[in-house]
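Regression report. Comparing outputs from two consecutive submissions.

Submission 1:
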Amino acid sequence: MTELNLKDVSQYVEENIGTFHQKRIQSLDSLKLAQVLKRKNPYLFKAKYVLTADQIIRGIVDAHISSSEEGIFGDWLEGLAIFINEKVYNGKKSGILGVDLEFDLEDKRYIVNIKSGPNWGNSSQIAKMVADFKTAKKTLRTSNSNLNIVAINGCCYGRDNKPDKGDYFKYCGQNFWEFISGNINLYTEIIEPLGFNAKEKNDTFIKSYSQMINKFIKEFANVFCKDNGEIEWEKLVQFNSAMKFL
């Protein structure tokens, strides 16, 4: 074990956090109004007494941003976790399906599936993770049948007070960051570096966001608003749900 140098973490963040912000903007720029309107429930907007194109557009764009950012940042945190573990335990990004990180500690081979938060999947998704762990163990034991392999579902934030799940262990938040680094306080120590250039990067994002909102409001009004500005709800529902939209 090598003690983690927080300066290495800060340097990694400074060199790589731009990727997260860049992908945020790319996700926003790739958004198409027709696509998101077809994924949203038009009846819900009506039931909530939504009266303006602005309310509808901000609702669907903000929902898209919230969902995509969670995934984008989760992937970024996975990279940070692997980097930290490599520094401390000489771990590596796994090439096995369903496993993100592998490292050895105290005569055990740990295989880790990294998620953003604790509530990441339904029963089917969890069952697939367990199946992937079992397959990974078989794969690793083809070269060393005596290998003691421990499967871990690591979550970058949150908590789980019953980590032993039978087929695997689930470490969340403080427990996860300590597990991969040996540093009990790492979960709080990484928060400051993550703010590197955050304001400057977010200003760029806000500019793209504002342009997208204005563009979508214009598109929406041209198609789904009457001349007096009222929303044509029937036309919107037909676009969303009709077998054919003329």
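Submission 2:
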Amino acid sequence: MRDRAFVKMSGGGNDFVVFDDRAGWFPRDQAGPLVARICRRGLGVGADAVVLLATAADADFRMVYYNADGGEAPMCGNAALCIARFARLQGAVEGKEMEFRTGSGLFRARVPDPERPEVTLWLVSPRELTLDLPDLAAPPYLRVGFVDTSTPHVVALLESEASVDALEVTAAGPPLRRHAHWEPVGTNANFAAVVDRSTIRMRTFEKGVEDETLSCGTGATASAILAHLWGLVDPPVTVRTTGGVPLVVDFTPSADGSPPTDPRLTGDARIVYRGTIAEL
């Protein structure tokens, strides 16, 4: 890893160490402990995850994603925003539109200007939707639902933005994240409140990081979709995350109340700094 170049990127507050691995140099057989060292704050670069830009036979490129604990995960919305912009900056794609492969399948993104952070990502239609889990909806939660938006998410609805801000997410997250409903792989846990018909406040406890993160793109999408199906918001929905950089979730509602289609996530993929690995 010595002298390997990386870019530190932030997608809505999720931070990533991003490498160009199109030449296949990254030691995948050592990825677990290596990623954990890179992501460890204080002793490593510090990040929620490591993301690789890799080649793909059936798409413009492939995104390979490792959580901070070293485990490979199929997909991350905010990382996908970042890898899309990174791919354009690295010359892996030439046009504004691109298609790339992940562990959750093919995704499409649009980067209008690689010199600016705005990126739009098209996500998969909601899967495994459960509008209400009454056994989990104990105070302070008003409702609890589940949806897979390319990664699994449970969403607990709270009374107000102040309630979300006051919640001890590091204590509230693990019981939902590891609940028997989602054994053995678990789920991400989101805590949301409606601000108005077009805005929600959300905090996320992410599996693989095992802590609260400043943002979550697929979690924002899950929260917006469930809030819409609960009759509380209309698209597009601005999601306020702890990172302070809003995410915008849009989708096409269904006339019969079934899950919406064509979900889109728009957010900022910011380059924080560029560096090289020295002593790790």
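Expected: both submissions complete independently.
Actual: both completed, but the second showed a warning that disappeared on reload.
Relevant detail on submission 2: The chain has two domains: 5-114+269-276, 127-258.
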